[in-house]
Amino acid sequence: MASAAAQPGKPPPAGAVAPPLADEPLLPVANHALLLVGIMLASLIQILDTTIANVALPHMQSALGATPESVTWVLTSYIVASAVAMPITGWLADHIGARRLFILSTAGFVVTSMACGLAQNLEEMVLFRTAQGITGAFIGPLSQSFMLDTSRPSKHPQMMALWGMGVMIGPIMGPVLGGWLTENFSWRWVFFVNLPLGAISLAIMLAALPKRPAEKRKFDMSGFLIVGLALASLQLLLDRGMQIDWFASGEAWIYAGIILSCLWMGAVHFSTTKNSLFDPHLFADRNFVISCGFILIVGCVMYANMALFAPMMQNLLGYSVIETGWLMMPRGIGVMISMQLAGLLMRRGVDARILVAFGFVLTIASLWEMTSWSLDVDSSHIVWTGIVQGLGIGLIFMPLNSVAFITLPPRLRTDGSSLLSLMRSLGGSVGISVATVNFAHSLQTSHSDLTGHVTNATTSSIDFSAVDRFQGIGDVVMVTLDGMINRQAAMIAYLNDFYLMMWMSIAALPLLFFMKTKR
Known about the structure:
- The structure is a single chain.
- By secondary structure, the protein is mainly alpha-helical.
- It contains 19 helices and no strands.
- The longest helix has 40 residues.
- The N terminus is likely disordered.
């Protein structure tokens, strides 16, 4: 007889194995909400440190006895170390266990943050920032993969919205928090602030973070050296390009030669080796590869925009550090709103590609609006443009992170997360470098063009033929006039960068036609 086990409404007989449920987390936990707090705190302090130290650089320079050129290594050492270490996240998680790696990397990040705050000279600071970059490199990918593994598949869009808010808001809040801490306490508190937040995160993860089954695999040392050398060379080329006058210097050609050699060796190595640094199945997944391309472009636009926004507000429009932070905050509010909305719409079955397309439309519209700014732009205009841009970025970022993992097996999530994080960081570095170069070129060109139009005919209030007779007063007049021309030229250069980011966003849209999605 078929037995009562098959009858609806009755429990299965003793000893029967319950059928697996499709909408169950890969790693169930008792208190999921508490665990999310611990994971997000770890992710937040790591992301904050990518931008929080920027505003404190002048104070560090005087305290550590550094030059304007050498103090930038405080930022470069962290970025390079993080980029080089990030690709081994998947292998290291399998080798020592994802839980242990997450806890150790968070603890290491807290300890190295304290060491950075105690540094007495530039050499110590660069050493500790390098260690901080290495330990922090694993936090982003592991936080993303653990949030997915401990959540039901139906909640994945919501989890990616929550994780994405930290990724997007961290860089926006970093300069605000860094400026406030530096002005009211000391630049050392830019690093000390990580200690209490990191301690809370560690306590929660030690109590609630589950273990993930490990899968031993050989370490691809050759692949790691090729990728690490290429990333370090690219980062150094981008960071030092302006200082060494780009390819007018032999140093830049050395970096370029190393990058091209690594690309050729990497193509041969990764297509022939059996134990690759990245699982080759990642690159066979069309959604994941296209999402990497989108994330690269989003990183370019987002980080370049933030890198341009702060100096434009402070140096050109006259806002203070704190006021600049408040004006950047609406962008974060827009991101929060759109990410939650995107998660809700995806759970209702809305195609992720539609959300991404609409997000790009909003981002492009905000950048188009920014190209019409002038030196007289008011704060309300800046606020509303920031909100629209935040709404667009949130609608792009959250669905992309979800779509990237829709067709990816759970065992590839850590590798996939590390690669996506690497693409975002790489996009940010490339975007900032390209925006900086374009700004410098536009500034020189615009200054030359504007100067050519300053004549007695166009400037009736100044008689240039009589300036020499007034000696010192005439010099003051000319310096003042040059300063006015510089301000206008700088504003035009910023507008040209906004144009560039707008066209980059437009160029990315056709990639949507190659993506596939499912409910």
